[in-house]
Amino acid sequence: MEMYHQLPPGSYPKSKLICPALSLHEIENLFMQDEFHFPIAVKPDVGRMGLLFRKIDNMSQLRSYHSKIHVDYIIQEFVTYPVEVSVFYYRFPDQQNGTITGFVKKEPLQVKGDGRSTLKELIESYPRTRFRLDEMFKKHAGQLQDVIPANQIFYLSEALNLSRGGKLVNLDNEKDDNLHAVLDGLSHYTGFYYGRYDIKCSSVADFKAGKNFSILEFNGCGAEPHHIYGNENTLYQALAEILNHWAVLFKISRYNQRNGTCHWPFLAGLKHLQNAGKHFRQVKKLELHQDLIHG
After folding, report:
1. Distance between CA atoms of 237 and 247, rounded to whole angstroms?
2. Which of 44, 141, 176, 206 could form a disulfide with 212 if both were Cys (CB 3.0 to 4.6 A apart)?
3. C-alpha to C-alpha distance for 105 and 31, rounded to whole angstroms
4. SS3 content of the chain, % helix, strand, coil (to 5)
């Protein structure tokens, strides 16, 4: 939520931070007071890799999610724009214009029905799920024997992260002055100099025109440059790209430090990393409980 509050108003989905200590009655009241409508998205306030992200379709599912999660989480309006993109951007603080190092489109993990095969059979025959069969069978246990109608799309995961089965498609050919102008505008508003925006939009053209888009997340210095996966890089090329991003991050950090930005001492940073690791292990453990909510 700290990141959302620094983004321009209206550029991200309506969101509400929820404490797991709240009662189910309090959750229902907050839901109505803030005028949320199903479906909604829920996810940890501090998370990664799409862990514990769920699409919630009704109050029963929300109650189930809330009663089983033990970390702060966010209720968020579900963004229905059909296209999701990821943009990695940096700008040196003493410069007006920044650089887009990566622009990719995310495609979901999904299968298409043929009117004859069960969901289980479709999953088993789909190459992109061959290393995730146990996960898929647990997640969709109640629907495995359903026959999916011909040409109907069944989403195996609503989260488009690579770790949840998403696929990245290179959009380098779409990078232009209009796209840079949109990202420069965001950077000058927020003061975010380095990181990755995950965005849903009506189309790539609309996003480049600065309209009909919503920022799902902004990931700062810990962000991974997703484009290393979507550009058919060799391992050497991918590692070189990561090192280049680290060099940029170092230069930005050094500039900010020299111009008065305070930084943590070593022990404070170490403690933060240890606490973050502990939190992530807790979130990952919760994710393994597939009864958090069905699907």
Report:
1. 15
2. 206
3. 32
4. 40, 20, 40
Same domain membership, residue 100 and residue 27: no
- Tell me the CATH number at 59: 3.30.1490.20
Q: Model confidence over 75-108: pLDDT tens digits?
A: 999 999 999 999 999 999 999 999 999 999 998 8
Could you tell me the CATH number of the domain that includes residue 199?
A: 3.30.470
The residues, ordered by sequence, that sit 6+ positions from 72 with a Cβ below 8 Å of its Cβ are 17, 18, 19, 20, 44, 45, 46
Q: Is residue 148 part of a domain?
A: yes
Residue-wise pLDDT for 258-274, tens only, equals 999 988 899 999 999 99
pLDDT at 50: 81
Question: Is residue 36 predicted with pLDDT exceeding 90?
Answer: yes
DSSP-based three-state secondary structure for 171: coil
Least confident of 152-156, 180-184, 189-193: 152-156
- Do 32 and 61 lie in a common domain? yes
Helix, strand or coil, per DSSP, at residue 144: coil
The contacts of residue 235 (CB under 8 Å, 6+ apart) are: none
- What's the pLDDT at 294? 47
18 burial class (0-12, 13-18, 19+ CB within 10 angstroms)?
A: buried
Give me the phi and psi of 214, to 5 degrees please.
Answer: -140, 130
Rounded to whole angstroms, how far apart are CA atoms 182 and 133?
40
Q: Which domain holds residue 218?
A: 80-107+166-257
Pairwise CA distance, residues 174 & 176, whole Å: 6
Q: Are residues 182 and 99 in the same domain?
A: yes
**Contact, 179 vs 205, CB < 8 A?**
no
